[in-house]
Design a protein that fits this description.
It is built from 3 helices and no strands. It is an all-alpha fold.
Amino acid sequence: MPEFGRIAKQSGDPLLGELLLALNQDCRWHREWSTSLSQLLREDDIENGKIIGSWVAEWHTHIERALVALGPFVGEANPLPGLTRGEPSR
């Protein structure tokens, strides 16, 4: 998300850049909250970890496809480090 904000600012849209940077702060809060919830659920029951893992695997595929589609707009920048930028797995 911060990369998109920088791209917007460099492209002459400082307002969109600021909005995307603010959205990044919100995304970080959601990521921290969901990580805590996931840890709590995994500690509560081992089966929860398997269910969460299947959700993550399913959504990872969608995220990969989105990154491939965004490629022409962001060039080599990877807004989600750790995820591939090649062809989607499915």
